[in-house]
Amino acid sequence: MEYFAFSIAIILLLGLIFNKLFTKIKLSGLLGMIILGILLGPYGLNLIDNAILSISGDLRIIALIIILLRAGFGIHMGSLKKVGTSAIKMSFIPNMMEGFTIMVAAHYLLGISLLEAGMLGFIIAAVSPAVIVPQMLSYIKRRMGTKKGIPIIILAGASVDDVVSITIFSIFLGLYGGQQINFLKEVLGIPVSIALGILMGLILALILINLFKHFNIRATEKTLIVLASAILLKNFGDYLNSFVPIAALVGVIVIGFVIIEKIPDIGRQLSEKFSKIWIFAEILLFVLVGAQVNIYLAMSFLFIGLAVIIIGLMARSAGVYMALMGSNLNLKEKIFCMFAYMPKATVQAAIGAIPLSVGVASGEIILAIAVIAILFTAPLGSFAVSFYGEKALEPDEP
Fold it and tell me: Which residues contact 128 (CB under 8 A, 6 or more apart)?
């Protein structure tokens, strides 16, 4: 227990230091936290207690739920209506373009089967809400690009992007394992799972709103109730997934969205509280993502892995451009959206090791390239969004 507490203490203290230090030298604080995780993790100095590493997946899911709740509190109905079509196209076109392009590139460059390359493609294709959401919320708060709804397009699109990636990855994994899979049925199941996730989030949000209206509950207690409810929603969705596909994480976003629409004063209070909790959750999330990284494995596939990832990013950028055709965004704003759709982190850390764990022949290669994708795209995308966003996004008039 003492070593567990010691590990948490050094993660938090050094996480704050590395974040500030990297920000100070004009690099992404997120890169600092990931590097710290590599240094402290089992492939570095091994200073993180195994008990923490064993629950690392659960801790990272809780951190992801916190940032998705914040995303929900940052989306408003008026803005969503304005950008609805673009957000829908952004949720699947860039992802499919990147995933299938990587599948073909990896098949020829790495010499692996198309099924294995397909798994790799859709592990890599998932964009990281944990990297993107805080930055988009910052632009919304400063009212930059909000007149055209640019941060909202990215928030809404990125939340569904992961559902698409994980579903198609699961299809390839099932086909590799010899399961009889109806590809069309699985793909058509994506909108069904999103709709069910939205419905579950809506029902839970309405229950919470009634609770907050009828009982005098302190803001901090409300925050804990919302967080616990969102975690239960995710667990319940995971349980029901064996019977019917449910995108529970989309439901988590809906909770914040409905609360801010129906009871805006309480919604703003909760949004502020979750912003403070995120300071703790962010450190835990990215240090533990770094701790999962086998840097030696990544180095052995570095150059070929980077080639595959860059080809995929070029296809994703083309997909973003296609998705935004017909919108009122200018070229600079479209390029900003391309940068915002670059970062990979949470999904790659969560499912990158699954092919290896179930005995896929090229599982080690898939994991190595997933690791390279995190190290290359998370800090680069984060920096590009911060730097280029200041030039590309126009502040709204008061």
Answer: 158, 343, 344, 345, 346, 347, 348, 378
**In the structure encoding, which two tokens stand for residue 25, read together?**
């030298």
Residue 144, beta-bridge partner list:
395
247 within 8 A of 297, measured Cβ to Cβ = no
Q: Which amino acid is at 369?
A: I
Tell me the torsion sign for CA atoms 290, 293, 294, 298. Answer: negative
User: What letter would DSSP give residue 144?
Assistant: B
Q: Which two tokens stand for residue 174?
A: 């099932």
Give the residue among 91, 103, 105 at the shortest CA–CA distance from 249. Answer: 91
Give phi and psi for 392, each to the nearest 5: -90, -35
Tens of pLDDT along 183-210? 666 667 778 888 898 999 999 999 999 9
The answer to whether 89 touches 323, Cβ cutoff 8 Å, is: yes
Residue 187, pLDDT score: 67
Rounded Cα gap, residues 120 and 375, in angstroms: 16
The pLDDT of residue 2 is 62
Sign of the alpha-carbon torsion through 70, 158, 330, 135 = positive
CA atoms 372, 377, 379, 380: torsion sign: positive
- pTM for the full predicted model: 0.82
SS3 345: coil
CA dihedral 30, 36, 37, 43 (to 10 degrees): 140
Q: Please give the domain boundaries of the chain with CATH numbers for all domains.
A: 2-392 (1.20.1530.20)
Residue 48 and residue 320: Cα distance in Å, rounded? 39
